[in-house]
Design brief:
Helix content: 25-40%
Strand content: 15-25%
CATH superfamily of the largest domain: TPP-binding domain
Largest sheet: 6 strands, parallel
Strand order of the largest sheet: 3-2-1-7-8-9
Distance between the termini: 14 Å
Order of helices and strands: HEHHHHEHEEEEHEHEEH
Bound molecules: 2'-O-acetyl adenosine-5-diphosphoribose
Length: 246
């Protein structure tokens, strides 16, 4: 396949050793998972932007949990795609820091290690009452909200909901990667949610090249050195081969 972005990167590959990657829901679209913005039939008419909030979890607990559980079921059934796998392969030849806004766990299942989960994960549940936290991969969950195994109180998913702070360690590491990378790949994100959407501007300010991989223009496109228009599963394998010199 002739991918102009790949030749553009191949010409520069020798100076691109440290690579930071920021991903969003679009990288999992070809695994069959819904994105957040835009009409997606997989949400079945329910709005994650409305139901994935601390207020909704407190006042419309069952409705909110039903949507989280639906995403857990879809994610458990989904398989990582060629885009996830290409990023895992890139880490075998380059220093790669992968920061994702996704909560589906597909990067890890594709083999990426030390993924910075900026928005948490669907697969860890915690109890505000007693502080218990642990991995739970049962999907669907038999009871909603799931009860805390320690105190019986309602568990919540360890996901960063609207208005909540990001995990400080992950954000710090992602910021550091933005400051020190030679290249940042921005994959499948609309760039609408901060602070994750601010990482490309940091990388640019510190002198990195920015490349977007997205079939549609985004709020970040104007900052890019190169905007590759296409899907993650189509473009990433070719781009990664170009960076590796394969
Ligand atoms: P969005 O739904 O806002 O954006 C998805 C992006 O993926 C869009 O720009 C699409 O054009 C692009 N896209 C669609 N299919 C693609 C494909 N096959 N390959 C590459 N790109 C594709 O999702 P995010 O930017 O991830 O927060 O949204 C950011 C945050 O908003 C999410 O993490 C979520 C939500 O609130 C939480 O869940 C905490």
């Amino acid at each position: 396949m002739d991918v102009p972005a790949a030749s553009w990167l191949a010409d520069r590959r020798r100076s691109l050793r440290r690579i930071a990657v920021v991903t969003g829901a679009g990288i999992s679209a070809e695994s069959g998972l819904p994105t957040f913005r835009g009409e997606d039939a997989l949400w079945q008419g329910r709005n994650p932007m409305e139901l994935f909030t601390p207020e909704a979890l407190a006042t419309r607990t069952r409705e909110s949990w039903e949507l989280f559980d639906r995403l857990r079921v879809l994610s458990a059934r989904a398989e990582p795609n060629a885009g996830h796998r290409a990023l895992a392969a890139l880490a075998r030849s380059h220093g790669v820091t992968l920061a994702t806004q996704n909560i589906d766990g597909l990067h890890q299942r594709a083999g990426s290690r030390d993924v910075l989960e900026l928005h948490g994960t669907l697969w860890r549940l915690s109890c505000a009452g007693c502080g218990h936290a642990g991995v739970n991969e049962t999907a669907p969950l038999p009871l909603l909200p799931p009860p805390c195994p320690a105190c019986g109180g309602p568990l919540r998913p360890d996901v960063v909901m609207f208005g909540e702070p990001l995990p400080a360690d992950a954000l710090r590491a992602a910021t550091r990667a933005a400051e020190t990378c030679d290249l940042m790949l921005v994959v499948g994100t609309s760039g609408a949610v901060y602070p994750a959407a601010g990482l490309p501007a940091i990388a640019r300010a510190y002198g990195a090249l920015l490349v977007e991989i997205n079939p549609a223009p985004t709020e970040l496109s104007a900052q890019m050195d190169y905007a590759a228009r296409g899907t993650a599963a189509m473009l990433l394998p070719v781009i990664v081969r170009a960076l590796r010199g394969d």
